[in-house]
């Protein structure tokens, strides 16, 4: 019986395709931002429900905001308020694109 490939192995193989790699890199900043949001909320000891209460919204909205699979693009003001509630400010920066 052969072993199933790990998620990392499947990802690494998929990233050998230039089109897949370009799409992956284009999504990377959004994924990283959402990972950071989740980590900051958890470090503050807050559940999604508690975060929703602080922001005056529903837990399902926080779940959607933090979801790595959501195609909903939050408003900048929403992310700023999320950061403020956790004691952070938001910085947005433009960077030159890397040559492909």
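Q: What amino acid sequence fits the structure above?
A:
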């Amino acid at each position: 019986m052969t072993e199933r490939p790990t998620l990392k192995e499947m990802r690494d193989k998929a990233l050998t395709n230039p089109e897949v790699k370009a799409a992956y890199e284009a999504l990377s900043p959004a994924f990283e931002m959402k990972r950071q949001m989740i980590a900051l909320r958890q470090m503050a000891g807050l559940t999604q429900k508690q975060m929703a209460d602080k922001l005056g919204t529903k837990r399902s909205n926080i779940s959607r905001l933090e979801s790595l699979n959501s195609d909903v693009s939050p408003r900048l003001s929403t992310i700023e308020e999320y950061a403020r509630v956790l004691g952070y400010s938001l910085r947005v920066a433009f960077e030159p694109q890397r040559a492909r």
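Q: And what stands out in the fold?
A: The two ends are 40 Å apart (CA to CA).
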